[in-house]
Amino acid sequence: MSTARTENPVILGLPNQNGQLRGTINNGNSQPAPTTNALNVILLVNNNSGLHRPGDDWKKNLKLPPKDMRMKTSDVTATKGNEFEDYCLKRELLMGIFEMGWEKPSPIQEESIPIALSGRDILARAKNGTGKSGAYLIPLLERIDLKKDCIQALVIVPTRELALQVSQICIQVSKHMGGVKVMATTGGTNLRDDIMRLDETVHVVIATPGRILDLIKKGVAKVGQVQMIVLDEADKLLSQDFVVMMEEILGFLPKQRQILLYSATFPLSVQKFMNSHLQKPYEINLMEELTLKGVTQYYAYVTERQKVHCLNTLFSRLQINQSIIFCNSSQRVELLAKKISQLGYSCFYIHAKMRQEHRNRVFHDFRNGLCRNLVCTDLFTRGIDIQAVNVVINFDFPKLGETYLHRIGRSGRFGHLGLAINLITYDDRFNLKGIEEQLGTEIKPIPGIIDKSLYVAEYHSESGEEVKP
Length: 469
Fold this sequence. Notes:
alpha/beta, Rossmann fold, 2 domains, eight-stranded mixed β-sheet, seven-stranded parallel β-sheet, 14% strand, globular, ATP-binding, RNA helicase, RNA helicase activity, RNA binding, EC 3.6.4.13
């Protein structure tokens, strides 16, 4: 299980808008930073007996991560019992899948992979943190033809951090496939670097809408042979912020292409897009209930002036592995991060007004366990997967049920346990009631003592039985 890393207790001021504040924390071990240069790993893998051959027991030679013994909820365990080998995938792809620690397909992967491999359009609705990235990346990589030196697949995502995350997963899963070229391109980075990169072979592009549209219009990103386009977090991509760009991007693609839409929520904008562009899509709905089963939700009724004191109390009483704390504005993010560091806790912060290199550094360092607490805006609600996060705190309560759903989905990733705590003021009371009704969920008053078995993995075995400390 990944945990945050030990560091010497220090307190620093607000350093050059880079989002990293240090205080005193008690942490565990860190994991090495994910590599981003694993594109050209060759298929043949050395081992004690020589090279892999078709008859070898290839599974014995895989470098598997430690088995995750944490309890998982039915959001990811209620499967049909399929195995990844059942889908007739290339062995080299299977090697990457297993080395990611993906043992068996989750429900969304079981539903998606065979349909996507058949070439059919998909409209998939599944909860945050249940394996959507694997559901589209596995069939996408299986269908890449390495003999063709062209862009064959596009993955469009709404945020730069999500683009980096998805590209790293894609690189790692494909590392044994003999040269699949993956490229991430987002706003806020050097356009010249992207142009030079596209002058070489690229098979898969993972991008934010504005940047990839710019590259297409400049004639640099040649998308005439793209066979698959994925819209991850499709509800956001088809909102007013991006829908015009998405329509333009599709206009440059071949008429015969496969479209995969994935999201936790599907408003009317998605339905309209589907009717215009998808051909008899296969619809998947794994959202009988909206909130994750493993996330316990509480509220604390406070005044605005009591919020920081309440947060300090939570830090002292909860067993936090890593936490994400949401505010409703960039200014409040920075002010709260400074307060947290003054209280003596290690704290990073991230918001959309920061320089991109600083955002990248904060995202990279937090997911690798260099800090226990991250304060952020809703920039960080979309698809960001950090397994070590077990507590989400809404310092400012959101107005929309959709925002709330995506925020609390940062904990309880892939069926694990998590805790969501909401600081509610008098002005938030109607929003609280409305979100409960909209999502069909119950947000309970916070008890004096929160049972650790609700959100701390060490208190559970894989079978789900509570482990006595």
